Amino acid sequence: MDLIATYDSSDGSENEHELIPTRKLPKPSVSLIPNQPTANPLLHQGRIRSTPHVEGQFASFVYISVHIDVNLQRFLEEIALYAMERVPTLQSVWLGGTTSSDRELHISLTRPIYLFHHQRDEFIRAVKATADSISEFNGSFATFATFNNDERSRSFVGLEIGAGHEILRDISKSLEKALQFLRQEVYYLEPRFHASFSWALLETNDERGEELRDLYPTILELPSTLVPDLTSNYGDKLTGKVGTFHVDSLHCKIGKQVHRFPLE
């Protein structure tokens, strides 16, 4: 930065101008430059951000985590492979080297919400209060089902909840007051609690659609025969022991942080 300083003479003579030598400010440390989240769908399995990023705002949601044992892991691999053979555009994390850290299914109890820094503690307290009021319980997967996200940019194949549905609905309802206080959208009026195991991109008018299709081919919709085929071949096994699970905690993810709250 070139700095020029002008000095007035003390005896009333003509102003004199003195040129200060050039001084360059050091470049800021990389550690001081905040990381800006990228919205590039190519880096996030084709996901398209529906809500623009706002500095200081954190994507959040509440969910149940279902631990994956060996039997359920093998079952998920089997049904994912079966579904992908019938719909080649499907993708699944259960094939191609799933690690032990990935071995859990998520059952969402809220929509994705966006909290500012000062709202986080309030919401965490609400989730903890809900967890304190609910006892541990057993649940089960009952049927196969397909779902579209709210933006209708993705379609999912998942396992829908049977036993435990009423308790999950109670948990979701108990969070509504906190969500409304924070001006967030509550969960669906008729919730279908589920865990997804495969997904496909749907046709979209997004400007990056052509680029996305090179990596993730899109479809208009999943075939109506997929769920009946899965049910015919794997329904009995799903409703057996492999589809049961125990719930002992709630999870709340805010940004990159995950908070776990044991149930009563």
UniProtKB/TrEMBL annotation:
Keywords attached to this entry: Hydrolase, Lyase, Nuclease, Nucleus
Keyword check for Transmembrane: no
GO MF terms held by the record: 3'-5'-RNA exonuclease activity; lyase activity
Entry's transmembrane regions: none
Keyword Calcium applies: no
Gene Ontology cellular-component annotations: nucleus
GO biological process: U6 snRNA 3'-end processing
Family annotation (PANTHER family): U6 SNRNA PHOSPHODIESTERASE 1
Designated name of the protein: U6 snRNA phosphodiesterase 1
Upper classification of the organism: Eukaryota, Fungi, Dikarya, Basidiomycota, Agaricomycotina
